[in-house]
Amino acid sequence: MKLIFLGPPGAGKGSIAQRITEQMNVVQISTGDLLRDAVKVGSELGNQAKKFMDTGALVPDTLVIDLLKARIAQPDCDEGFILDGFPRTLPQAEALSRAGVSIDKVINFIVSDALVLERLSGRRIHKTTGRIYNVNPGGAPQPPPDMPADDLFQRDDDKVEAIANRLVVYRTQTEPLIAYYQARGNLVDIIASNALDDIIRDVEKVIHDTPTPPAAP
Ligand code: AMP
User: Rounded distance, CA 192 to CA 203, Å?
Assistant: First the structure.
């Protein structure tokens, strides 16, 4: 099963992909995580990518396409994968198609800009476990009350100015992919403003829904 998760930043693609990989024999491939790892180890790619990532801009296609192709060539991808955050531009989608990767379903997660802002501006990451919390009033999950604020960090691109930029980048560069995959007939919309358990149920339904063959004439 090869899936693409499309949708704006903050739609919950990462959390949803994580839950699905716990139930199915597929790996989650987040180009954002791969790039953040490259930044952390200070590789040539990481150094080139960092300045784009910090402002919420996209990393140039050539860098991301090479990174993704190398990742999906690894043996753990043989049984299938979820692409979380790739493709984000038409050239990336075309490169995937040229590489002969046939995608079973493209799931498009729909969420309002207001909810994206609420989710991302409150997002804090636990330094040691990587667990994600939301510190905004009403955000979930809240960090435990006894957790020191210093144990959590905020991604540079989760600051309000960068979020606004990421949304503009999404609308101009990534949203055209909805029409691209619609034209190929394998795009399914899912409302991503519901509770995570409800979204997971909707995604499972889409994954297990095999198209009915056309009736005999
Ligand atoms: P994410 O964690 O998916 O929100 O990605 C964080 C940042 O990594 C993005 O804002 C981009 O700067 C960069 N990035 C991740 N995936 C891609 C991609 N497919 N194309 C270009 N840049 C990407």
Answer: 10
Dihedral sign for Cα atoms in the order 164, 124, 85, 43: positive
Is the CA virtual torsion 206, 209, 215, 216 positive or negative? positive
Find the residues whose C-beta lies inside 6 A of ligand 1: 9, 30-32, 35, 52-53, 56-59, 64, 85-86, 88, 92, 157, 166
By most ligand atoms within 8 Å of CB, the mutation choice from 34, 47, 54, 58 for ligand 1 is 58
Determine whether 55 is exposed, middle or buried from the number of CB atoms within 10 Å of its CB (0-12, 13-18, 19+).
middle
Active site residues: 13, 88, 123, 155, 166
Tens of pLDDT, residues 56-96? 899 999 999 999 999 999 999 999 999 999 999 999 999 99
Element (H, E) at 188: strand 187-191
Residue with CA nearest ligand 1 atom 15: 32
Separation between Cα atoms, residue 131 and residue 129, nearest integer Å: 5
Contacting residues for 152 by C-beta, under 8 A, at least 6 apart: 124, 125, 126, 127, 133, 135, 143
| DSSP three-state, residue 123 | strand
pLDDT digits (tens, 9 = 90+) for 120-158: 999 999 999 988 899 999 888 899 999 999 999 999 899
Task: Give the Å distance between the CA of 201 and the centre of ligand 1.
Answer: 26
